[in-house]
């Protein structure tokens, strides 16, 4: 079965992402309703398949980065739906006379007349809808635009963020003793460590507050939560009487984890990727893989669990996982 | 007695009749002889043997050798300096009996740390009876690391221990970290850290350890006969092939295999004994043993003589 879609791996360039971005947003709002109205011609799945109860999701996050991720993830979900749909529809293919276009954009109004095969990742300049071939079979391979490694689908697994470490400068010198005495949930042991350790319950985080006014906030599960928690700590310090500001908030480290759901042959992996891997069962049961691009350290375990750390932005974690997934699939344990 | 023939890169002397013949050196007589016709081509060749033979029970102060210790050219930076010896006559001592000229220090200040480390390496290797080739390899590794200066902040002993570990691995006879810990004052954690740093600094890598690397050493430390050792090797290898012990350290698997083999033979060993020898906790052996116990009949070699049959093996 020829995979009809050219699949986008997350290591594609940002340009690709941006063009996808714009085209996708167009499609979101133009393709769906009109395609449904055309009678008599069976419709290949547009962006939102009917009957699944899905509606185009409005973009919620304030972070511009996460918009990209959201869309990537949406694409991945849709691809899976696509493939399911495609399998169903190939059975009906003999009956259907389908007009197929090599790309699906031309997303302007009249596009609704020609139901277009949804192709999530082609970026060629769209031929005009009128020039679609008349007798395509569903098995006609699309011209892959992004070079796809054979049989590489995006894994469909999304690493979950487990910890975010961020720093912020409160901009004034602090008296740790008064903070420790007056604030709740604060501990200060100057002989052991020269900072106040403060905890808040929502979001569940811990902060180290130093006398220079700098603060480290750990334990949050998302960038927004980390920022919110840091602001809460700054407010606590402010309420204690210090002229606290919120300068240079920066996320220093992000940790994510996921499960590839199959056991992995670590010995094979260390043999082939010697310059990146370090596997010493005497020292640590997992393989430590230092990826160069993006610069992420992955801990890979025999059970199939993977921990990714060292990222400054969420996209690096996703990209690193998409890079490692085909490699791990190659070292799947067969028994 | 003819010594080994030297292959001259620039043949300065050749036999006039046989220019292609490789001359044989007879160092006792100081001759270079053509093997084809027996012509003595070069004579009065300087004897490079030692001038005197010294024995340990001779008066040690009267060592007539004028050349000193053998050089260590690969390691120290060429030891061609000389030292002023201790005085022998009465004039060299002042009124209190102290020698007047006391400068025997700072002979190689740049290499002092390195020589100290070599001494330490030799001591450590001696404790676990490592052969000279491993010690030489360790010295070489240490010299490379020391000259690179990328690990300059680390304790020299830690780097020396890690070099010893890497040398054992490279020679194909790995020692466990715990064994190196036992002869060194450095903690396992620090040795592990230095090990990873050295591999990165020298841009080398080492092979993965396998269960068979340790079998002969552990079994002979436990005084187990050869059949038990071979059986244990077979069990451990089969267990890894059948993937009964995913994610377990090869040491633990080897230990469990030794336990199973010894319990099935006449020479039984307890988990505690095996754990003491290998530096593995006996709960670890128990865990690995539980994983291989269900497939015990498949793991034994076919020609093994059971003293205790397979179904009577202890089940923990």
From TrEMBL, chain A:
Region described as Disordered: spans on this chain: 123-155
Keywords: Coiled coil, DNA-binding, Nucleus, Transcription
Keyword Transcription attached: yes
Annotated localization: Nucleus
CDD domains, alphabetized: TBP_eukaryotes (cd04516)
Coiled-coil residue windows: 65-93
GO molecular function, one term: DNA binding
Domain of life according to the entry: Eukaryota
Gene Ontology biological process terms in this record: DNA-templated transcription initiation
Predominant cellular place of this UniProt entry's protein: nucleus
Name under which the protein is recorded: TATA-box binding protein
Organism annotation: Bos taurus
Upper taxonomic lineage: Eukaryota, Metazoa, Chordata, Craniata, Vertebrata
Gene that specifies this protein: TBP
